[in-house]
């Protein structure tokens, strides 16, 4: 499989202070969602036989293309939910369905318990203007407007007065690192700076959810990394709910609290970065993640064993969320086994054998717990 990714050079980092509660209320809730393009599209999800056909067979028999097939998931409040997959997997169609920029064929979508598919024109306008802001790959900046006025544009659409919207826009100029560039035109900015304007414009309207549709894929690698780190920083500071679409595994692992991996319109696995890398659901996912340095994604929980007598008080202490990469550094630096400590209590130990087992993808022999 040709994979449009690059090897990870730095450990993926999720915002530690904003990790969403697994019991948190869903912001978006999607159930049994289909989007079919073509004649009489609604017959495809209604007929299990048609719905089970692969893409080529479905086109031949019906003239239809199923871009999204029977997808269900929740986006929890405060999380970065990443949808990733190769070109044609359905990920961009899916995110556009959330606010009905593309009309779903069947299924249900709700935001904060409100049925999106039953919204009239006024409610949809309110959803798109106030509750869910979108950041696209193409910046869509107005060339005749300054940075400040581009950022304020969404507020202008909302009917906010000129003085107030420019004041609020100025706050986000600083927040995205564009100080001193307020009066430049888009043509005077680099690609990364233009994308920062697009991000600030989305943030300025104070949406409940930010929707990103491959926003950084056209940027140079170094600028792209800077923008990824900017998203991580903003999420850590604000805890805003985000849905992020990407085809890049590196980006997904770096940004996502949870990742939905799509193929041919379906979600083939949904889980944390550690679950995706450590326990691939099938050969497709396994092939997708095979080049990922496991030690940079998996945590010490995957390598630890019960503590033996005397081990719970000696050696460097690590949090349960520390990566195996961090544990290797600690063990190499001190020459001692590392303790995994949670709430002041040693919950396990990681040693050379356990760490090597994770790196090699082979379960290591574990010690026997001592009462």
From TrEMBL:
Transmembrane segments: none annotated. GO terms for molecular function: ATP binding. Residues 53-289 form the ABC transporter domain. The keyword ATP-binding applies. Residues 9-18 have a biased composition (Pro residues). The keyword rRNA processing does not apply. SMART domains: AAA. It comes from the Bacteria. Residues 1-23 are annotated as: Disordered. InterPro entries: AAA+_ATPase, ABC_osmolyte_uptake_ATP-bind, ABC_transporter-like_ATP-bd, ABC_transporter-like_CS, Gly-betaine_transp_ATP-bd, P-loop_NTPase. Belongs to the ABC transporter superfamily. This is Glycine betaine/L-proline ABC transporter ATP-binding protein.
């Amino acid at each position: 499989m040709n994979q449009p990714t690059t090897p990870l050079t730095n450990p993926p980092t999720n915002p530690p202070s904003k990790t969403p509660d697994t019991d948190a209320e869903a912001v978006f809730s999607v159930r049994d969602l289909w989007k079919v393009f073509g004649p009489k599209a609604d017959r495809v999800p209604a007929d299990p036989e048609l719905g089970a056909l692969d893409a080529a067979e479905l086109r031949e028999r019906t003239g239809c293309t199923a871009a999204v097939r029977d997808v269900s998931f929740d986006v929890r409040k405060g999380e970065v939910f990443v949808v990733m997959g190769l070109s044609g997997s359905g990920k961009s169609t899916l995110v556009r369905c959330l606010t009905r920029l593309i009309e779903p064929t069947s299924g249900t979508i709700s935001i904060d318990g409100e049925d999106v598919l039953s919204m009239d024109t006024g409610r949809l306008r309110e959803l798109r203007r106030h509750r869910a802001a979108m950041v696209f790959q193409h910046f869509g900046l107005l060339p005749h407007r300054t940075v400040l006025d581009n950022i304020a544009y969404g507020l202008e659409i909302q009917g906010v007065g000129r003085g107030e919207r420019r004041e609020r826009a100025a706050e986000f100029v600083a927040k995205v690192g564009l100080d001193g560039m307020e009066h430049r035109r888009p043509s005077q900015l680099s690609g990364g700076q233009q994308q920062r304007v697009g991000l600030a414009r989305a943030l300025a309207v104070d949406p409940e959810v930010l929707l990103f549709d491959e926003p950084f894929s056209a940027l140079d690698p170094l600028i792209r990394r800077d923008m990824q780190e900017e998203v991580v920083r903003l999420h850590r500071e604000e805890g805003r709910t985000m849905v992020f679409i990407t085809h890049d595994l590196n980006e997904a692992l770096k940004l996502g609290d949870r990742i939905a991996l799509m193929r041919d319109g379906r979600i083939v696995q949904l889980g944390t970065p550690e679950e995706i890398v450590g326990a691939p659901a099938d050969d497709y996912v396994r092939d997708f993640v095979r080049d990922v340095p496991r030690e940079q994604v998996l945590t010490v929980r995957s390598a630890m064993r019960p503590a033996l007598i005397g081990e719970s008080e000696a050696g460097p202490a690590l949090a349960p969320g520390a990566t195996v990469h961090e544990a290797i550094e600690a063990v190499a630096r001190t020459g001692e086994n590392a303790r995994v400590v949670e709430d002041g209590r040693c919950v396990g130990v990681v040693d050379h054998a356990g760490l090597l087992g994770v790196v090699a993808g082979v379960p290591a022999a574990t010690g026997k717990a001592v009462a």
